[in-house]
Amino acid sequence: MKRYKILFKGRVQGVGFRYTSKVIADKLNLTGTIENLYNGDVECYIQGSEQNIDKFIQDMKNQRYIRIESIDKTQVVIMEGEMSYKIIG
């Protein structure tokens, strides 16, 4: 089990990014949160198996209207008891 803070930059707001991420995270049994930042980036905390987190990122890169220009991925402390993936804001 791993947890990462991921900062997505690019065309990631106004394109269904957060909703799409929830669908993918739910399918892969991942937990965490996602929210739009004021500067146009999207911040995501994602928790689960390393393999499923990598699949989540790959699936997000392969979306039609989303264009991820860069990803900043930092491992953080696991959130014990987290049960779902939520869109914030």
UniProtKB/TrEMBL annotation:
Keywords: Hydrolase. It comes from the Bacteria. GO terms for molecular function: acylphosphatase activity. The active site is at R18, N36. Residues 3-89 form the Acylphosphatase-like domain. Gene3D superfamilies: 3.30.70.100. The keyword DNA-binding does not apply. It catalyses: an acyl phosphate + H2O = a carboxylate + phosphate + H(+). Pfam families: Acylphosphatase. Its EC number is 3.6.1.7. Belongs to the acylphosphatase family. This is acylphosphatase.
